[in-house]
Design brief:
The protein has helices at about 25-30, 65-75, 95-100, 100-110, 140-155, 170-185, 190-200, 205-210, 230-240; strands spanning about 35-40, 45-50, 55-60, 85-90, 115-120, 125-130, 190, 215-220, 225. By secondary structure, the chain is of the alpha+beta class. It folds into two domains: about 20-130, Dna-directed Rna Polymerases I, Ii, And Iii 27 Kd Polypeptide, Chain: A, domain 1 (3-Layer(aba) Sandwich); about 155-240, Winged helix-like DNA-binding domain superfamily/Winged helix DNA-binding domain (Arc Repressor Mutant, subunit A), CATH 1.10.10.10. A hairpin with a 4-residue loop joins β5 and β6 (about 125-130). α6 crosses α7. The protein is elongated, with a radius of gyration of 29 Å. The chain starts with about 25 loop residues before the first helix and ends with a helix.
């Protein structure tokens, strides 16, 4: 199947449907216009479409996208590689597809399921193929993996518990900032070269100049000390580590 051209202005609101069976006729018409023979409720499958030159299309219908629909689609993949999940368009606040369309589409691609959305407008009905069915091989994001690897390698110990919320994560960068802050707190106005030599932190210059947390201030060319904020937050971290 190929995406249908838009025949409904986006500004027109999607009308709510009463039953998932309301999706059947527009999707059936869409497929029949493309040479498919369509029948409903075949051995438990909501919609089955046959084409003389293509693999059968199996479609499961639901008013809204949910986990049960995904489970049904996965089960249908044992019968055909061309399985689609079909839902109605809705402006309701709880519509998962509206709230997380990018993530839902990514999920369907990873599983190999197609995704159809049907708009019931005041004047026209539109069938949109949001995701085509079929095997999917995600492209590896080398830069993101490199960042992940470097963060894992450079972070000392395991300072952050997985799953925590509303707490600052002790990243490798933050650990290095703390090391620099500890050095400055101990020695007072210290030169950049002295800090780098004492801590062994290669990014000392960048940490001091970018001053991401607002902990440092320059007192003279190449010499730094802690700000009041730096002293307060550093002392708080030290207290937490002692507890």
């Amino acid at each position: 199947m190929t995406p249908t051209p838009n025949i409904l202005l986006i500004s027109l609101p999607a009308m709510p449907i009463q039953n998932e069976s309301d999706l059947y006729e527009p999707i059936k018409q869409y497929l029949e216009d493309r040479g498919y023979s369509v029948k409903g409720e075949v051995r438990g499958v909501d919609l089955v479409a046959y084409h003389p030159d293509r693999e059968p299309v199996l479609i499961e219908l639901k008013k809204t996208f949910n986990l049960k629909l995904v489970f049904q689609g996965i089960d249908r993949l044992t019968l055909s590689d061309r399985v689609y999940l079909a839902v109605s368009a809705s402006s309701a606040p709880g519509n998962v597809l509206n709230q997380n369309q990018k993530s839902v589409k990514k999920l369907c691609r990873r599983i190999g399921l197609g995704l159809i959305q049907v708009y019931f407008g005041p004047r026209k009905t539109r069938v949109d193929i949001l995701v085509e069915s079929g095997p999917y091989q995600p492209r590896k994001q080398k830069l993101k993996f490199k960042a992940l690897h470097e963060e894992f390698t450079n972070r000392k110990g395991d300072p952050s518990v997985g799953g925590i919320t509303r707490q600052k994560i002790m990243t490798a960068y933050r650990q290095q900032v703390v090391e620099v802050a500890a050095c400055v707190a101990e020695h007072g106005d210290y030169s950049l070269a002295e800090i780098r030599e004492s801590t062994g932190v290669k990014k000392t210059s960048s940490i001091l100049q970018k001053n991401h947390y607002g902990w440092f201030e320059r007192v003279a060319r190449g010499r730094y000390r802690l700000t009041d904020l730096g002293k307060e937050e550093f002392e708080s971290l030290v207290a937490e580590s002692v507890e």
